[in-house]
Design a protein that fits this description.
33 strands; four-stranded antiparallel beta sheet; disordered N terminus; 0% helix
């Protein structure tokens, strides 16, 4: 793999993680945003409870495959085709600005890039390619590299769609034929990229062709069939505070047509009940949608007086809170491959973050990290079978950990300046 150095040693540490929260009491009430009364889940999933090592019998459905190879954006007529790499590695992650591969069974770690300035790695559906952002000068590029280190090439250049633009949130389509990403440019010409600049959702085919803008917004998420995109709209700027007002989650098709609003800040009630307690939401920003791969639910984050993580159906019904942090917040959420569990980043006022694993029936089923354990964790990613999570622990010794979905059996995969793990759909699971 591109003259890769000798494999790096791995220190395996086992620690039992105390679960940071008990299942909530009464099931949270749906928030009525449509005249029709919201319905509960008629077929609840069988889930592990805190402290149990439950095994699921379901097998992971075979993911759709990407094209046999991903050519350069503008190949010459006589160019040799890029060889199809052999799937390798289980978890790709960032260490000191380079991409690394980690193997969960034996702890091996192998560098995939050596030039630095690389971030946001995402595995292709077939586990053969890694998509990532490469920073270059004042802007960035989207690049792909084979899982065996071959075939690295630029997919979207620094000058397209905008010179000096910052690219983020790259994500493959469910069939691997296209890629969504966010492009942010310095529209107010203040010399920095921040929340007051305009962000746009773009789409490009997997071979680098057909680059096109879908809408103004950010945080794009594919629907399960890959025909629609949910994203956070920008809303209006408020001159008093550095946040966007009156925004929401919109849905648009992959041709950039038929845009409509799934939910907006104005449709979130000012008072919400969860677990028998009432909270004043004070929502002023909604973002980070994530579409369940096997259901009609879309998760999202609300920022306000009380931070919330919520779900809503793709028909704009049954808006339901999963978790609330008074004077705190939530980050990204990620659905398990079977869509029965949701892992989401929780940022309570204590400053010690945790990852909460829940289901539609028990929104707070298991907590990983948090004050009780002294671990401050984020960036969850699921194993292909949905039984394990990898994540980043950043308090004290920083490491990438692997733990069961029930919060048990923590072990370290890699240490150092590590971040942004992503588990290959074709990788090994977390079991020994």
């Amino acid at each position: 793999m591109r003259n890769v150095l000798a494999f790096i040693g791995f220190v395996l540490a086992i620690a039992v993680v105390g679960c940071g929260g008990q299942p909530s009491g009464p099931k949270s009430d749906p928030i009525s945003i449509t005249p029709q009364e919201a319905k509960g889940n008629s077929n609840p999933a069988k889930l592990p409870t805190e402290g149990q090592n439950a095994e699921r019998a379901k097998e992971t459905p075979a993911p759709s495959t990407t094209p046999a190879h991903v050519p350069s954006p503008s190949p010459s007529p006589n160019a040799s085709p890029i060889p199809t790499p052999t799937p390798t590695g289980d978890i790709v992650f960032v260490r000191d600005g380079n991409l690394w591969l980690g193997y969960v069974r034996d702890g091996r770690q192998v560098p995939l890039t050596m030039d630095g300035n690389n971030s946001s790695p995402k595995w292709s559906v077939d586990g053969r390619w890694v998509l990532f952002v490469h920073s270059k000068g004042s802007g960035s590029e989207l690049q792909v590299i084979g899982a065996d280190g071959s075939g690295r090439h630029q997919l979207v250049g620094g000058g397209s769609p905008y010179s000096g633009a910052l690219y983020s949130d790259p994500i493959w389509s469910p069939k691997g034929d296209a890629i969504l990403f966010t492009a942010t440019r310095d529209t107010n010409k203040d010399g920095k990229l921040d929340e007051r600049d305009v962000s746009e959702v773009w789409l490009v085919s997997a071979d680098g062709s057909n680059l096109r803008k879908l809408a103004e917004g950010r945080d794009p998420a594919w629907s399960p069939e890959g025909l629609r995109v949910a994203f956070a709209t920008l809303g209006k700027l408020d001159n008093e505070v550095p946040y966007r007002r009156d925004n929401g989650i919109d849905v648009i098709n992959r041709e950039g047509k038929n845009e409509w609003t799934l939910v907006s800040t104005s449709r979130v009630p000012g008072e919400i009940t969860l677990g028998g307690y009432k909270f004043g939401s004070g929502v002023f920003l909604i973002d980070k949608p994530a579409w369940s791969p096997t259901s009609k639910l879309v998760s999202l984050t609300a920022i306000g007086h009380t931070g919330m993580v919520l779900t809503i159906t793709d028909k704009a019904s049954d808006l339901r809170p999963w978790g609330m942090n008074y004077e705190g917040g939530f980050g990204r959420s990620v659905w398990s491959p079977h869509g029965e569990l949701l892992a989401y980043e929780s940022y309570p006022p204590s400053g010690v973050s945790e990852i909460v694993v829940g289901s539609p029936d028990v929104p707070r089923l298991v907590a990983i990290g948090g004050v009780r354990t002294g671990l401050s964790v984020n960036s969850p990613t699921w194993s292909p079978d949905g039984k394990y999570l990898a994540f980043v622990q950043e308090s004290g010794t920083r490491f990438i950990g692997v733990v069961g979905a029930d919060g048990q059996g923590l072990r370290q995969l890699a240490t150092g300046n590590v971040s942004e793990p992503d588990w290959s759909p074709k990788g090994a699971t977390g079991g020994n």
